[in-house]
Amino acid sequence: MVFDIKQLTPKEQLILSLIPTGHQQAASRASLAKLTGLPEREVREIISGLVVKHGLPIGSCTEPTVGGYFIIQDEADLEVATRHLLPRARAIIRRTRALEKIAQEKFSRQLKLVLED
Hints:
Blueprint: H1 10-18, H2 29-36, H3 40-52, E1 58-61, E2 68-71, H4 75-83, H5 85-107
Antiparallel strand pairs: 1-2
Organism: Desulforamulus reducens (strain ATCC BAA-1160 / DSM 100696 / MI-1)
Protein name: Prophage Lp4 protein 11, DNA replication
């Protein structure tokens, strides 16, 4: 499948043009927001859409010295981009289960938070 940049909105094109290649050059959300004039939350949402909707290989890392977004170019970049995802997912699941338990204990209500695709 060949990617056509014309499928992207102007904001998506702008953000994509500012994301560097490789995790060593990662650009922070704050720097992308400053360069584009967009709120950080919108930058994050646009990048999520570029990955999920358009299938672009954009990774992120949370390491203090090289944190930010980058275009995944090789297996090393992929490893950096996925390293933090599983622990974050587990933490979210634990929090979800705690809220389900709270709903049952405090409100006598069964709450089932379901993951959707």
